[in-house]
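May I ask for a protein sequence together with how it folds?
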Amino acid sequence: MDSFKIWAVGNLAKTPELDTRGEHSYTRFCLIGNDYAGKDDGGSSREVVTSLWFVAFGPLGEAIAKNARKGDQLVVEAKIRANNWTDKQGEKQYDYSFVVEGFRFGAPGRAKREEFDERREELPRAV
């Protein structure tokens, strides 16, 4: 049983890249989200930026690396995996990994829209 799962919606901080170690492939990527954080003293809206790193293995990671570009929105389902270890000084360290179990593409970012526009311009036009 997976004790903790999350759904995250955010935009890619940069274009994901596929990596391979032995026979295993994976893609690490960072999603960024902007949330309303009230108003400042001058009455202007403030935002707080949150970024989370994810890892997707095998075909999921390959699909993300092949089709996603910086700025694209992704909707990600991930399980949270605890990473605990003892460092060289004997101190206990705690960290978490967000392992992708599923995803959907959201709105395309600027790079993807520009790719679409270039392809559209290359198509023959009806007379």
